[in-house]
Task: structure prediction
Amino acid sequence: MLNFAVSCRFWHRALLINALAAVVVIGQSVNVKAQARSPIQPPELTADCELLIVGAGFAGTAAAYEGLLAGRTVCLTDITDWVGGQVSSQGTSALDEAKRMREKRFFPRGYNEFRDRIVKKYGSLSSGNCWVSVSCFLPSDGHQILSAMLQDAVKKGNGTLKWFPNTVIKALDYSPDGRQIISAIALQHSPVANTPPLNTEPLSQLIEDIYRPEASARLKKQQIRFTPLPPSKTSLPTPWYILEATETGEIIALADVPYRLGLDPLSHINPSSPVKTNDSYCTQGFTYTFVMERTATPQPQPEPVFYPQYAPYFSYENANNVGIDAVFTYRRIWSPDFQKRPKATRFGVAAVLPGDLSMQNWTWGNDYRPGTEQDNLIYSREQLQQRGELDTGGWMGGLRTVTLRRGEENAIAYYHWLVAGTTDSRLGNGVKQPAPDHRYVTGLDSPIGTTHGLSKYPYIREARRIIGRPTFTYPNGFAMHEIDVSQTDYGEEAHYRANLPPEMYRKLRKSLAGLEFLKLPDGVDPDQIPRRTRSTIYPDSVGIAQYAMDFHPCMAEAPPEKPGNEERPGVRQAHGPAYPGQIALRAMIPQKIDNLIISGKSIANSTIAAAAYRVHPFEWSVGAAAGATADFALKQGVMPYQLVDDLPRREPLLEKLRSQLEAKNNPTAFPNTSIFNLDWDEWKSW
Result:
């Protein structure tokens, strides 16, 4: 039985609607510098650590897990008060997994433990019997399970966990040569006495206050300086590592290391790109999730004041999804005794009964998909410069507050469309019927953990992505690209022959020739060049990833909800199956700074490759690799870049790291997949 109240009276929603409408619209012009800030004062608290993990999302939690099992002192921060990111504070508690990986349980050890603990809690992998995944569960339980895993890792590994919730990094200090981060200044916020608890207001109302060092009428601030734990050996090249695990790549922007954002230019390595030059503004949509409850009787459903603005966007998307039950069961996260119920015929899941709970994450619903320089969520480097966020003490999180607010409004409006709407932007009139027998779930003790009912932080699908270090084979900086994982047969699809310049098309086919490349004579017809049937194999692979290239493209015009607006043309061209991929260590090593390791969605890859490298198993694998690599580098007294700087020649220490990862059940490659084995059918996704 659930241990929280679902007495989410609709006056809570009215409060939220009024609060969202009252948010001051600021910062819409990037030509105006951000407000003047008080100088950073001396920190009130100093915390020392061997691993400073910034961001406690799924990747950050995985890094902390591995660091603690290795006996390290781990400082873990997050802007929210929950660990887990996707599975908790972002509300996307439905595991996106490739079928074959799931069948063979071929995941990192911590991810398998997480799944086992879900089964232990619910008696099965799912508490909701959804049809998007075999595992849908309550976000609050995601946080509780991961918190328990970290505490157990402390005991097993004799490590030390210093957890800093409601904490953001404000500034970084560097060594004289600029090659290392020697300390980080953070701000931890808490509510002022006699004001409501945190998670009362949506993020857009507080985010600017969170990053200001001075106290406000709403928030108290404590400044914290993170510093290295005094090392046991003075000969170490660095006494600590900073692990970037934020959802948007905050630390890479703040440290100003080279990175990409948005759409990459068309090239032979990203042949499905719809643009000829980089477009920093079009990223995948972000989503504020929420939970709704099926009720026995119709409920009052007051219309939000902003509903007419967003209503033209919403749709069931296609005929298969028409009807409230289809959308409700898609990510249903609570369904008591669903095994005993009759199946809903269309999707093979249990019928819906009053008391069932559904988490909403729908493309033509609460996805918010800005894509222009007027409304993009994640500020580009140029925009950050114009706003003064790269000035000393000027960092404010790097997000557009107005777009956050509109994403929140869009989610609330989508709930109203589900229960009261009668229009459908893609399927036309007569399709959408009201479904008033639902309740919008709110409360600090609810599955989403907020008074306003929206997730604590939006689900971010795409972040700033570093450009790795240049090498002989990657003169422009290492990265993983579309052709490294895509299953597309570019010769079979006329689009590529018709749209790529002849020399680019030929270079594409040659790049995918595999071992046959050495046998190809000059002047051979590109369409006669056989396409390899595998992904790129990396000698420095430290993790695995498998998922289809799945896009939630930005919209063509601003604002996204504009009547008649469509997705940016061409962004979905690469949508489709991907081969099982690897996570190269070179993709986690930024330029300029030697003791910074990148995890999560900010590793070096293109926006197309990132569409496959973004889901739950990948995040855990890359986080585990980051934590294990930091521990290994400290033990060996080397920097991570030194593990790969002699490639393609042998790197004995790299081989040792990979062996240790495998020995600890953190896979670095899929079974029976190599450059010599072209039969990868067993591991194909989709």
User: Anything to note?
Assistant: The radius of gyration is 24 Å.
